[in-house]
Structures are given as C-alpha cells and as structure tokens.
Amino acid sequence: MSTILVVEDNENNMMLVRGVLQMKGYTVLEATTGTDGARLALECDPDLILMDIHLPDISGIETLTQIRAAPSVRKVPVIAVSASVMPEDQQQIIASGFDAYITKPLNMRSFLESVEKLFMTLS
C-alpha cells in the first residue's frame, strides 16, 4: 500500500487524518513542523504528502519549496491542507506549486476521495 506523509501541527487534525488513512490501508508518516516534514520527505520517499500551510517553524509553502528542490522527491504530489478559504489565499497556495488544495475543516468523505483520485491519476 502507499505511504502518505502528513505534515500537520494540530494534534486533533493529525489524529483524525491518521485514523482515516490507516483505516483505508495507507502507511502514515507524521511530522509536526515543516523542517521535519522536509526531512522525512527526503528520508522516506513517500507516495503523497499532505501539507498544512500554517506550521510553527516554516510555512508549508517554504517546506514545499525545499521538497521540490530535491531531485529524489521533486515529483511526489503534495496536497495543501489549510483553513484559508479566501480565494486569493487558495490561488497563492496553488501558484506555489501544490498539486491540489483541500480546505479545513476536513470533510472525511471528500478528503478520502481527493486522496484516492490523486493515486488513481498516478497509476
């Protein structure tokens, strides 16, 4: 099964996402900071990364920039997960190079559909 790296600093959100993804059979790696997220992406070569935008050290956008700079993980799809619902925020996030955008609070059905749809396009 596929490995998903979740970069999320909110414990409740992490617990919810982890539980749903593991229930569907995915292996979940966890990071609570952008720095750890970038490190784990390089070390573990996940199949997909779910990235919060507002992290305690560096932003999800800066973390994405670091990931995209590394040839070994440059092509790994990264989905932004953020509570920013303003259209200009979403446009900036997508323009930063994310492959997709999911808004918080998460609707688990549409969240899983987005993850599974992305995996189908990769296979």
Number of domains: 1
Total number of helical segments? 5
Give the amount of beta strand, in percent.
15-25%
H and E order? EHEHEHEHEH
Which helices and strands occur, and which strands form pairs?
Elements (H helix, E strand, L loop, with lengths): L2 E5 L3 H13 L3 E5 L2 H11 L3 E5 L7 H9 L9 E5 L4 H9 L4 E4 L4 H15 L1
Parallel strand pairs: 1-2, 1-3, 3-4, 4-5
What does this structure look like?
- The chain starts with a strand and ends with a helix.
- Strands 2-1-3-4-5 form a 5-stranded parallel β-sheet, sandwiched between helices.
- The longest helix has 15 residues, at 108-122.
- The chain is globular, with a radius of gyration of 13 Å.
- By secondary structure, the chain is α/β, with parallel strands linked by helices.
- The protein has one domain (3-122): Response regulator (Rossmann fold, 3-Layer(aba) Sandwich), CATH 3.40.50.2300.
- 46% of the residues lie in helices and 20% in strands.
- The chain has 5 helices and 5 strands; from the N terminus they run βαβαβαβαβα.
- α1 (11-23) links the parallel β1 (3-7) and β2.
- It has helices at residues 11-23, 34-44, 60-68, 87-95, 108-122, and strands spanning 3-7, 27-31, 48-52, 78-82, 100-103.
In short:
The protein is α/β, with parallel strands linked by helices and 123 residues long.
